[in-house]
Design a protein that fits this description.
Structural class: mainly alpha
Order of helices and strands: HHHH
Shape: elongated
Length: 105
């Protein structure tokens, strides 16, 4: 875990409540799908069905990741440079956003 996550919320947190809700819902769905995959593997389920469900989990996680990155991009575009107190904020740079996209590829 990185320093920022260990120290609590930072300016890099998602500020869009609607986006947070949507991402959390996607992740909960993926969690349920993954539980079903685990149960199928442990129960000797059909390999085609297991792989299909695993692909669905992977896709759900990818969509959640892209939603997080796109929300961060919107925040970088719409929020002014510098925190409200006049100091520099901790927003993601273009390079950091590109790196995040690449980690999802």
């Amino acid at each position: 875990m990185d320093e920022t996550a260990a120290d609590g919320p930072s300016n890099r947190a998602l500020h869009d409540a609607d986006a947070v809700k949507k991402v959390a819902n996607r992740l909960r769905r993926a969690q349920g799908q993954l539980a079903a995959v685990i149960a199928a593997v442990e129960g000797g389920g059909d390999c085609r069905a297991v792989v299909t469900q695993l692909a669905a989990v992977s896709s759900a996680l990818d969509r959640a990741g892209f939603a997080i990155v796109s929300t961060a991009m919107r925040q970088c575009i719409t929020e002014p440079t510098g925190a409200q107190d006049g100091t520099d904020d901790d927003r993601l740079t273009v390079e950091e956003l590109e790196k995040l996209f690449l980690t999802l590829a």
